[in-house]
Amino acid sequence: MLSPALPVHAQAPNPDVTALPRHAPLAVQTRDGLVESVHYGSVISTAPDESDDGGLRTLFSAGDPLAPFYPRSSLKPLQAAAMVSAGLDLPADLLALTAASHSGAAIHRDGALRILEMHGLTADALENSTDLPYGPDEREEWLHAGGIATQITQNCSGKHAAMAATCVINGWPVRGYLDPEHPLQLLVAATVRDLTGEEPERTSTDGCGTPLFALTLRGMARAFGRLAAAVVADPGSPEAAVGRAMMQRPEMVAGEGRDVTELMRLLPGAVAKDGFEGVQLVGLPDGRAVAVKISDGGDRARMPVTVRALEALDVDTSTLAGIATGVVLGGGRTVGQLTATDFVPAT
After folding, report:
1. How far apart are CA 111 and CA 201, in angstroms?
2. pTM value?
3. Which end of the chain is more exposed for a tag (fewer CB within 10 A), N or C?
4. Is the dihedral of CA 78, 83, 86, 87 positive or negative?
5. Could you read off the pLDDT of 250-303 as tens digits, one per residue?
6. Domain locations in the chain?
7. How far apart are CA 105 and CA 254, in angstroms?
């Protein structure tokens, strides 16, 4: 029976279970030695190799890393690279904010406004959805001060401010900048194809309103490896500008207390970005990369799986212990743990 809570146009037949991605168990939560929950997903690690398919070599994988999926906000650094190639020139903190899913702290809100003001714009130019600050502490502080959901507090406001600014720089219409046929979005699509080496399987619309492309974990890993490696290998490129800004100002990419910010602080040279529905990407200075998708869309397994994958690449993850596992409490004491499975194939 169709749900009466959904409009008719939003209701669809049940998915074909034979076509579902073949995910693998990547993380488990235990309670007093018993597995309580299992998170399935897919993961891949890649390295640049000009002699291999598409200039990319798979180091290891688990699940179904070639199944198309929506990268969600992990696309933002690629979108930012497209804008830099079109003339967007921002200081490191604001360029990092362009690639951010920020927590909505004052530095993030003020940063989005600064991007607009630098280009003669106001918040009226934004076409993203409205929302309260994403970070729990930031949201509570905002509400306590009488704040409401706005476009500036929505976690993608830095990207949208930069999109409007890029239109001004190029003489493109600001109104309608989210239209897939707008010159800005056509440039973004071309950049995504170039960095991932893939033609999107299909397109949709992200939560904030921007066009969204269905890609593979392999393609996204390729892109993030290029973002991180360019900082050293091609320092004048748009990819290097974005990667360098994210490395220099990780607090702008997410926020205080966020695991993505912590990872970049604790792993110098890494470019990291998360995405809704359990997505995590990490690029390393030598061009290697890790891409993770948790099948149930839950957020808690994303980072333990990522750290385990980095460990398998012989990356020193000792500093990442605080984000590599999750504590399970019972009566106020530790009774279990959320941890990655041993999903890396034996060599």
Report:
1. 34
2. 0.93
3. N
4. negative
5. 999 999 999 999 999 999 999 999 999 999 999 999 999 999 999 999 999 999
6. 69-316
7. 10
